[in-house]
């Protein structure tokens, strides 16, 4: 990275412009952080040493680059952190879907278009505006696309604090938002880090269906439903299947219960609107999708990440937790001889659950 300008910019004025341009591009907020993440690096190492990352080997693969921005992108001295709200108005009430065992619960962030490309494109446009104002400068945009400690950076940029559930919370907007970063060589003035406001509250810890939050600020991903339904490629541990309920892709319970989400803001991005009525579709209907239908209907969506095998595995578990009906049993039987041993295993578990109820 190397900024090339004959006359140094007014960096304080530029920082204000960057935040204004970010909002004009659809981001809810932006802040600027330095690159010192020493304490967070130690926290990450402890988490990895405890094995709490499960099969997410990529969390350890890049060594210290995750917590040292200047090593990931040489020349980086500042990070522009942005956030974007993701729950659009009109989305079905999450608690109502969770209380309807025949319905499929999909994490609210994944109901519409995948945010990665959308936010990266906006960050690129932000960089182009900066370039238009000052000329060439060094930068690189990230949205879950490289080893970045995005929550720690966002906290240091003043966008919120990391809650006891390990999710970033903004005092004026709750936690339903995505994060993105622009690493840069511009020596912009940094914002004040956000202070924590969880106090003695432990609602997120107590409500977790699988007790994945093993202590304040400590998440064992191996027990987390988001990990189980998205990252895990093999069998879901049997003792964790019943607590999953009807959650087939991700989980929001720790956010739903958080008092700060009474301040959550509606998304302004129309592409985040639910597709295929996935904010409350019936489990049996989704279980009937062919692989071609799954690929077509999840094109451009985060749900694609679980893969078709994972999709059927997750729904089989949810059907095993659904009320015993002949329709549920017939749906499971239709996949009992599926080519995938993972699918067959979870279907057999679900059928055994229903046989016990019959």
From TrEMBL:
<feature type="binding site">
    <location>
        <position position="224"/>
    </location>
    <ligand>
        <name>[4Fe-4S] cluster 2</name>
    </ligand>
</feature>
<comment type="subunit">
    <text>Monomer.</text>
</comment>
<feature type="binding site">
    <location>
        <position position="201"/>
    </location>
    <ligand>
        <name>[4Fe-4S] cluster 1</name>
    </ligand>
</feature>
<keyword id="KW-0963">Cytoplasm</keyword>
<dbReference type="Pfam" id="PF08331">
    <property type="entry name" value="QueG_DUF1730"/>
</dbReference>
<dbReference type="InterPro" id="IPR004453">
    <property type="entry name" value="QueG"/>
</dbReference>
<dbReference type="InterPro" id="IPR017900">
    <property type="entry name" value="4Fe4S_Fe_S_CS"/>
</dbReference>
<feature type="binding site">
    <location>
        <position position="258"/>
    </location>
    <ligand>
        <name>[4Fe-4S] cluster 1</name>
    </ligand>
</feature>
<feature type="domain" description="4Fe-4S ferredoxin-type">
    <location>
        <begin position="186"/>
        <end position="218"/>
    </location>
</feature>
<feature type="binding site">
    <location>
        <position position="226"/>
    </location>
    <ligand>
        <name>cob(II)alamin</name>
    </ligand>
</feature>
<feature type="binding site">
    <location>
        <position position="198"/>
    </location>
    <ligand>
        <name>[4Fe-4S] cluster 1</name>
    </ligand>
</feature>
<dbReference type="Pfam" id="PF13484">
    <property type="entry name" value="Fer4_16"/>
</dbReference>
<feature type="binding site">
    <location>
        <position position="251"/>
    </location>
    <ligand>
        <name>[4Fe-4S] cluster 2</name>
    </ligand>
</feature>
<feature type="binding site">
    <location>
        <position position="208"/>
    </location>
    <ligand>
        <name>[4Fe-4S] cluster 2</name>
    </ligand>
</feature>
<feature type="binding site">
    <location>
        <position position="66"/>
    </location>
    <ligand>
        <name>cob(II)alamin</name>
    </ligand>
</feature>
<keyword id="KW-0479">Metal-binding</keyword>
<keyword id="KW-0004">4Fe-4S</keyword>
<keyword id="KW-0846">Cobalamin</keyword>
<feature type="binding site">
    <location>
        <position position="179"/>
    </location>
    <ligand>
        <name>cob(II)alamin</name>
    </ligand>
</feature>
<keyword id="KW-0560">Oxidoreductase</keyword>
<dbReference type="InterPro" id="IPR013542">
    <property type="entry name" value="QueG_DUF1730"/>
</dbReference>
<dbReference type="GO" id="GO:0052693">
    <property type="term" value="F:epoxyqueuosine reductase activity"/>
</dbReference>
<keyword id="KW-0819">tRNA processing</keyword>
<comment type="pathway">
    <text>tRNA modification; tRNA-queuosine biosynthesis.</text>
</comment>
<feature type="binding site">
    <location>
        <position position="254"/>
    </location>
    <ligand>
        <name>[4Fe-4S] cluster 2</name>
    </ligand>
</feature>
<keyword id="KW-0411">Iron-sulfur</keyword>
<feature type="active site" description="Proton donor">
    <location>
        <position position="144"/>
    </location>
</feature>
<keyword id="KW-0408">Iron</keyword>
<protein>
    <recommendedName>
        <fullName>Epoxyqueuosine reductase</fullName>
        <ecNumber>1.17.99.6</ecNumber>
    </recommendedName>
</protein>
<comment type="similarity">
    <text>Belongs to the QueG family.</text>
</comment>
<comment type="function">
    <text>Catalyzes the conversion of epoxyqueuosine (oQ) to queuosine (Q), which is a hypermodified base found in the wobble positions of tRNA(Asp), tRNA(Asn), tRNA(His) and tRNA(Tyr).</text>
</comment>
<keyword id="KW-0671">Queuosine biosynthesis</keyword>
<feature type="binding site">
    <location>
        <position position="168"/>
    </location>
    <ligand>
        <name>cob(II)alamin</name>
    </ligand>
</feature>
<feature type="binding site">
    <location>
        <position position="144"/>
    </location>
    <ligand>
        <name>cob(II)alamin</name>
    </ligand>
</feature>
<keyword id="KW-0170">Cobalt</keyword>
<dbReference type="InterPro" id="IPR017896">
    <property type="entry name" value="4Fe4S_Fe-S-bd"/>
</dbReference>
<feature type="binding site">
    <location>
        <position position="204"/>
    </location>
    <ligand>
        <name>[4Fe-4S] cluster 1</name>
    </ligand>
</feature>
<feature type="binding site">
    <location>
        <begin position="251"/>
        <end position="252"/>
    </location>
    <ligand>
        <name>cob(II)alamin</name>
    </ligand>
</feature>
């Amino acid at each position: 990275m190397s900024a090339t300008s004959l006359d140094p910019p007014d960096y304080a004025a530029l920082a204000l412009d960057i935040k204004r341009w970010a909002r004009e591009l659809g981001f809810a907020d932006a802040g600027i952080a330095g690159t010192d993440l020493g304490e967070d690096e130690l926290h990450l190492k402890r988490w990895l040493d405890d094995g709490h990352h499960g099969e997410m080997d990529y969390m350890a693969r890049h060594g210290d680059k995750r917590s040292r921005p200047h090593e990931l992108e040489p020349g980086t001295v500042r990070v522009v952190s942005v956030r974007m709200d993701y729950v659009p108005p009109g989305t079905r009430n999450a608690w109502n879907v969770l209380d309807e065992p025949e319905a499929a619960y999909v994490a609210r962030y994944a109901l519409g278009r995948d945010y990665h490309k959308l936010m990266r494109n906006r960050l690129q446009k932000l960089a182009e505006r900066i370039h238009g104002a000052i000329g060439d400068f060094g930068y690189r945009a990230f949205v879950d696309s490289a080893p970045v400690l995005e929550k720690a950076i966002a906290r240091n940029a003043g966008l919120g604090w990391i809650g006891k559930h390990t999710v970033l919370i903004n005092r004026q907007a709750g936690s339903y938002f995505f994060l993105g970063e622009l690493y840069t060589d511009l020596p912009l003035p940094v914002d004040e880090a956000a202070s924590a406001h969880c106090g003695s509250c432990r609602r997120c810890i107590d409500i977790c269906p699988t007790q994945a939050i093993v202590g304040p600020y400590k998440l064992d991903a191996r027990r987390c439903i988001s990990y189980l339904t998205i990252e895990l490629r093999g069998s879901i541990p049997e003792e964790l299947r019943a607590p999953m309920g009807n959650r087939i892709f991700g989980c929001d319970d720790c956010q739903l219960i958080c008092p700060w989400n009474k301040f959550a803001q509606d998304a302004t991005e129309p592409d985040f609107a639910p597709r295929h009525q996935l904010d409350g579709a019936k489990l049996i209907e989704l279980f009937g999708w062919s692989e071609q239908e799954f690929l077509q209907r999840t094109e451009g969506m985060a749900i694609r990440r679980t893969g078709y095998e994972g999709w059927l595995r997750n729904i089989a578990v949810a059907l095993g937790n659904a009320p015993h009906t002949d329709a549920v049993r017939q749906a499971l039987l239709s996949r009992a001889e599926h080519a995938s041993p993972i699918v067959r295993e979870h279907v057999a578990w679900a059928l055994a659950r229903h046989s016990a109820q019959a």
